[in-house]
Amino acid sequence: MVINYDILTQAEDAYAVLKAQAEEDLRVAGEVQSLIASIGTVNYTQSCKESIEAARKAYNALSDVQKTLVSNVSLLTGAEDTYAILRARAEKEEADRNAARSVEAKIGKIGAVYLAEESSFQNPGSQRSL
Prior knowledge:
Elements: H1 5-37, H2 46-61, H3 64-68, H4 73-108, E1 114-116, E2 127-129
Antiparallel strand pairs: 1-2
Helix pairs in contact: 1-2, 2-4
């Protein structure tokens, strides 16, 4: 007669649960790794932004154990950093273009410019067009 059979079956059940959880953790972590890998080359585009955001959201949803199974999280943080740099550069370029347009508009409002001859300082009526 086996006196510890219940303990054995409980241990087997517990092992099966832990094994299933470990397999699920690996599966979910693998999906997030694939999302991160699919980001590819980082560009300042809406689709790239969405890929990065989707990978970040998926990674953040993982449990602490699952996060330790994601081996390429540095690619995600690198993509986020690169995208932030590209966004800042694009925003600066846009600000520079807007500033240039403003200056061009002001220059356009100046109108005709005349070169005054030296003698015109004494006779303001004599001016020559440029």
